[in-house]
Amino acid sequence: MINKIIIGALGLAASVAATPLELVERSSCRDDSLYKCFADREYSHSASAYCSALTPVTRTVTVVKPTVTKTAWVTSTANPSTDFVSSTATVYTATVPSLLETITKTETEMATSTATQSVTTTVTVTGSQNQQPPPTTTLTPFKRGTQGGKPEPPKCMVTKCFVYSPERITAGCSCIGVPPKTVTISQTAPCSTVTVTSTSVTTPHVTATAWQTVAMELTDGVSTTTATTTATVPTTVTTTATTTATVTVSPPAQNLVPNGDFSSDSTGWSFINTSPATWVNGGVGTSGSPDGISNAYHITNVASTGQYFIASPLIGLKASSSYSVSFMVASTSTDRSLVNTVHVQLNCGSITVVDTHLNQATQGANGYYTLSMNFNTAITTDPTTVSQLGRCQLQFLFPQSSQPPVTWFLAEVSIASTGAVSG
């Protein structure tokens, strides 16, 4: 019987067991002397009235706005890249001396590209430097006014030798189930802004054209033109040109002698060797030529016998016209009198238009003698003469040497028209 009573008591105790949090709260109230005052039957009614009349507690809640992130785009211009395009112009010019001109030209080219983009992202940041700290909540009980006068605190509360703090009063009222009323006020804190800077780079593209003028050699003058172009990075192209003033003239006349420079070997040329045993090794090559690059015809006389005859391809001339003829002859002999005996004729059928020797020639580079002269054809409309002038040959007769061996060279044979002859 006793066992049954004990078991029943244990079961009843287990059915009303409190949670740990409730046990802590009950323990704090049970140990509070003010709670014991409020819970006393003698004072419970006045304590309840007193707690109900307390002024509501004001609680301020700070609402923090989220942090706003802004992206600021900055455009930066990099050093431009410069492409140089070289161009060459060929002009035919004659020099006019004693004139010097300096031209300075500045051109500015800038290409700038700006890309701007704004991105706004909203995120919540806690603990930002710009965020206002939440205010401290203070629970201070005040007596609430009631109709019929203010309730007095229980006598057991005022008979003590000390004054209870507002926190103790609030806790004691809560323990008897009459907590002070709470009024909540929301305070909005200012939002914080974080700015992120991004940079976009654009590269200007500048194209500078450098012109180079190539001067051609003319019979009546040579012009030299020099053009220097300097590009200054980043954005300025400075062009400095120093030139010699020139007068534009007509291009050089066409050479009427086919293969006169022997660029096609000896094609079209005719050769007569009166002593094949003593005139040997005839041919075309760059060795012994005026510049060592172009071709020249050569023949070697190894004995003091015979002569060597060279005739150009056929040349067509016109009546009542003016022409210039030029050629270059060289010899391994140091005897100028031997060179002077080279005989040159321009024959057109039975008509001899030019008949000369090299005694009027001038010596130049690599021992070459150059002869240049002008001549006119007959002023006529006679069909026979006109026909013969259409079939001309420039003929060279090289003499034997008294001191062989001697090698002869022939190069740059040219006949060009210089205009008409008025009758």
TrEMBL record:
<dbReference type="InterPro" id="IPR008979">
    <property type="entry name" value="Galactose-bd-like_sf"/>
</dbReference>
<keyword id="KW-0732">Signal</keyword>
<protein>
    <recommendedName>
        <fullName>CBM-cenC domain-containing protein</fullName>
    </recommendedName>
</protein>
<feature type="signal peptide">
    <location>
        <begin position="1"/>
        <end position="18"/>
    </location>
</feature>
<feature type="compositionally biased region" description="Low complexity">
    <location>
        <begin position="123"/>
        <end position="141"/>
    </location>
</feature>
<feature type="region of interest" description="Disordered">
    <location>
        <begin position="123"/>
        <end position="151"/>
    </location>
</feature>
